C-alpha cells in the first residue's frame, strides 16, 4: 500500500514539481495539495495523510503554526518540514511544534524521498548540514554549563588529590610534603571547592574517573 503524501507549499510550481516526482515513486502517492497553512490543516483532517511535506513559510498560517495545530488534532500524522532556511531557530521551532524532520529546498529529490520514508517509519530526519550546525552551536554552550575540571587544580593540589584517592590521610600527606596538617586540610578544602565536591568519598570517585587511582 502506497504512502499518502500531502504537499503544503504556497508556490504552485513547487507543488506540481513535487507531485510529479513523488508520484513516480513506487511506494508513494500525493493525495492532496495545500497552498496555505489553513488549507493544510483542513486537508489533513479530511485526508489523514501518512506524511505532510510542509513548507514553513506560507501565507495566513505559517508551516510551524500549521504543524502545531495538526499535531494537536492528528498526532499520528508525520510532518516533514521543507524550507530554504538552515538557521537553527527555524529548525528548532518546527521540531518543537511536532515536525518529524527537516529538509532544505536546495536538496536533491532523492534526499527528500529518503526523508519521507524515514519519518513515515517513525524516525527523525535532519540533513547533515543542519545536524552539523546544531551540534556546533550545542558544543559552544557547553563551557558555560560544565563544572570546574581537573585542569583547574594546581600541580600540588593534583598531587594531594592523588594521595587522598589512594587512601592517604591528612597526617601522612603532611609528612610527605613537609607541611602542617592544617595546610593539607586547607588544600583539600580548596580542591573540593574547585571541583564542586563535598566529601572524601566524592573526591575518591572523581579521582577514579580521572584515572588517578586504581581504587574502585
From TrEMBL:
GO biological process, one term: regulation of DNA-templated transcription
Domain HTH luxR-type: 146-211
Residues in Response regulatory domain copies: 4-120
Positions carrying 4-aspartylphosphate: 55
Pfam families: GerE (PF00196), Response_reg (PF00072)
Molecular function GO labels: DNA binding
InterPro entries: CheY-like_superfamily, NreC/VraR/RcsB-like_REC, Sig_transdc_resp-reg_C-effctor, Sig_transdc_resp-reg_receiver, Tscrpt_reg_LuxR_C, WalR-like
Keyword terms of this UniProt record: DNA-binding, Phosphoprotein, Transcription, Transcription regulation
PANTHER family with a match to the protein in the record: NITRATE_NITRITE RESPONSE REGULATOR PROTEIN NARP (PTHR43214:SF41), TWO-COMPONENT RESPONSE REGULATOR (PTHR43214)
Protein name, as recorded: Response regulator transcription factor
Species annotation: Geomonas terrae
Amino acid at each position: 500500500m502506497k504512502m499518502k503524501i500531502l504537499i503544503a507549499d504556497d508556490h504552485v510550481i513547487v507543488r506540481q514539481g513535487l507531485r510529479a516526482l513523488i508520484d513516480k515513486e513506487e511506494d508513494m502517492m500525493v493525495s492532496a495539495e495545500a497552498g496555505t497553512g489553513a488549507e493544510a490543516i483542513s486537508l489533513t483532517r479530511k485526508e489523514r495523510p501518512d506524511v505532510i511535506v510542509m513548507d514553513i513559510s506560507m501565507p495566513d498560517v505559517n508551516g510551524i503554526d500549521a504543524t502545531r495545530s495538526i499535531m494537536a488534532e492528528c498526532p499520528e500524522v508525520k510532518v516533514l518540514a521543507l524550507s530554504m532556511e538552515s538557521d537553527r531557530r527555524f529548525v528548532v521551532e518546527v521540531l518543537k511544534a511536532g515536525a518529524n524532520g527537516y529538509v532544505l529546498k536546495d536538496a536533491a529529490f532523492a534526499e527528500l524521498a529518503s526523508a519521507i520514508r524515514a519519518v513515515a517509519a517513525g524516525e527523525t530526519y535532519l540533513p547533515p548540514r543542519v545536524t552539523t550546525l546544531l551540534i556546533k552551536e550545542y558544543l559552544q554552550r557547553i563551557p558555560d554549563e560544565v563544572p570546574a575540571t581537573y585542569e583547574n587544580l594546581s600541580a600540588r593540589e593534583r598531587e594531594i588529590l592523588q594521595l587522598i584517592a589512594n587512601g592517604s590521610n591528612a597526617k601522612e600527606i603532611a609528612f610527605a610534603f613537609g607541611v602542617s596538617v592544617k595546610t593539607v586540610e586547607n588544600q583539600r578544602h580548596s580542591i573540593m571547592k574547585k571541583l564542586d565536591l563535598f566529601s572524601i568519598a566524592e573526591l575518591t570517585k572523581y579521582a577514579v574517573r580521572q584515572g588517578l587511582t586504581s581504587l574502585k
